[in-house]
Write a structure and sequence with these properties.
This protein has 115 residues and is mostly beta strands. It has no helices and ten strands.
């Protein structure tokens, strides 16, 4: 059974940092390109960062490039998103999932950037 569990969200002031984690199980994590997505009310889910299988190739949405860093540990079946210089517009529920072969979505983790 596929399971994706996100954690690490919270309330942070503008300019602050958070590190999100995603633990995957039920599929061969190391064989999948993975992404972080986010959803805000009234908007479609947005893909913000992608990391390919060996971790050497990454991609970012323009809105987060230079501030967010995606990484993965294929031994621990875990993916991370280091978020720096956070802005109020980064407020969203963040999810992890495969980049191409979408799996059942987890609950996500809420990130709120506010003073």
């Amino acid at each position: 059974q596929v399971q994706l569990v996100e954690s690490g969200g919270g309330l942070v002031q503008p300019g602050g940092s958070l590190k999100l984690s995603c633990v995957a199980s039920g599929f061969t994590f190391s064989r999948f390109a993975m992404s972080w997505y986010r959803r805000t009310p009234g908007k479609e889910r947005e893909r913000v960062a992608t990391i390919y299988t060996a971790g050497g190739t990454t991609g970012y949405a323009d809105s987060v490039r230079g501030r967010f860093t995606i990484s993965r540990d294929n031994v621990k079946n875990t993916m991370y998103l280091q978020m720096n210089s956070l802005k109020p517009e980064d407020t969203a529920v963040y999810f992890c999932n495969a980049r191409y072969q979408i799996q059942p979505w987890g609950q996500g983790t809420q990130v709120t950037v506010s003073s």
